[in-house]
Design brief:
The complex is a heterodimer of chains A (67) and B (370). Chain A is an all-alpha fold. Chain A contains two helices and no strands. The longest helix of chain A has 26 residues. The model of chain A has no long low-confidence stretch (mean pLDDT 85). Chain B is α+β, with helices and mostly antiparallel strands and 370 residues long. In chain B, 54% of the residues lie in helices and 12% in strands. Classes of the chains: A mainly alpha (67), B alpha+beta (370).
Chain lengths: 67, 370
Amino acid sequence: MRVPTRPILTVLAWPLALAVLQLAGLVIGLTGKGWRDALSAAFVGASIIIFAGRWRLRAGRPHARKP
Amino acid sequence: MQSGLIRRWAWVHKWSSLVCTLFLLMLCITGLPLIFHDEIDAVGEQGAPVGPPSARAGQPLDRVVAVALDDYRKTAPGPGVPLFVGFSANNPLITVTIGSHSAAPEADMQMFSYNRSTGARVEQAPDAGVMDFLLQLHTDLLLGLPGKLFLGAMGLLFLAAIVSGIVLYAPFMRRLPFGALRHDRSARVRALDEHNFLGAITLGWALVIGVTGAINAFADPLVANWRGGELAEMVAARGGAPVHGPVMLGSIDRAMASARAASPGLMPQFIGFPGGAWSSARHYAIFFQGDTPLTSHLLTPALVDAATGRLDDMRAMPVAIQALMLSQPLHFGDYGGLPLKLVWAVFDLATIWVLWTGLVLWLAKHRRGV
């Protein structure tokens, strides 16, 4: 699973992008109801989709756990 | 990053996390049901009256307060004075708080609830019990202001743990892809990967929770400062007019009408009566709120002369107090509808797992004596 050494900014790109998306979602939810609520949940919840995707990949791989 | 620098950040991450972990676990666990307090409260309020919100319409306020004073006299030895009227933005419930005198302590106050549409008395709901207990535990560990300030300090440590965590994340993940979950490695590596991945994808949310939690913890002194400063300034700006006695209070409806005329689009949240902690000796202090999740947490006080019904002053809250008010929904996640609340709950559970795996990793390292 190792990849070539990456620059710090590249390593932090995903966490920071998701953090910005979450902040935007949290603020949008404060500004009104209806579509703003939906957008808010989608922006904040995007991280959960990403986690679920990675977890599924992990679960789909053959298990060879070491003690 | 140099290894010496990494070691220093690791030291910050380890100790800032360890000191606050147990308290954060408690906060995450008690915070989980608080996200859904509207839904849980609604289950207990199946018999709540239905109709136009009391903040919008209903029986005259003078009549509601007069009925409340009558009800108070039936149970108390003295005549009593009104202290607060509270409105609802969702239903016709209106509350009137009465005390033996205008500076009565909280323990001596009695609250009466009515249906403002019909004027009928509504039996006060019993304390929310478990939810009240959880809220108290979450906000002040049942210890009042010292507990709040202590939890505020834990919130600041949590922020230090997040910042140091992200600083350490960068060098440790340089040779791993984002979201690496090495299931084929040891339990320690699996816990490390889950800790790093979940910590990274909840970064923005956790920062907001930490910052707003710390702000909320220090809210009481700030609100008291605003109440004693800005409101006192509003009162002082009206000059040294003589103080009214309780018998000189004019119509509350007239006062409300003149304040509402100057605040279209806003609705009243509560009225502080003259002489009380939230008003001057001669004014009805009517606190207005907006009707969006954003503006419903921002209060706009209006001072109305209790005798003449003239609006004397009305001004928005200072920016710092507005930020303080907005930090409440941003901390508790009780806005944005059920989808956002469910997402909030998942983030809360993810944070519990980050805390737990952090503890497991520290224990494993501690046992190895490294």
